[in-house]
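Morning!

This is the sequence you dropped in the shared folder:
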Amino acid sequence: MKRTETPVLTVEADAVRVEARLRAGEVECPDCGGVLAPWGWARHRVLRNVTGVVRVRPRRARCAGCGGSHVLLPVFVLVRRVDLADVIGSALVAKAAGAGARTIAAALGRPVDTVRGWLRRFEQRAEHVRVYFTVLLVDTGPDPIPPAASVSVFADAVSAVVGAWKAAASRWPDIGEVSPWQLAAATSRGRLLSPRWP
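The structure's back. Tokens below.
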């Protein structure tokens, strides 16, 4: 049986603000540009950050135009991942700097197999991620300087994510309120580690 992915839209972390924007008709459908309206809730999720757990129940929304439904994921969540985007991002940064899966797993307090899974998935898509975020960097930055090539495509992809975040923050200072990995979660609609993205 083929598994299909639920359409998701990444939204800010403040659930009260998301609800207010949704009820005011201020959230746009990413598929057709129509207006999203409240339409129930997704299942409860217990996610892990560095110090403990975070409990979320993402809102569902339905488009008045095309009828499509979307799960509204907070900016700190990646699709089908128990760990927050920043936790996974810190593992990717450590790998790009030369650390191995065992060292990273020990530092984060995560199982080695979990960390290896993140690293392998990112490595499989590293060139695509590098290209996507380099284009985002160039399109966003007022004076874009793409990162120079480094020792690996993996490290280049990590540098591109961070570079795109810096470019966005230089253009829109409020973007600095989110981390590079939250920006990556938002721009990938939570699918940074998905085999079907970008």
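Headline: Residues 112-140 form the longest helix (29 residues).

More detail when I'm at my desk.
O.
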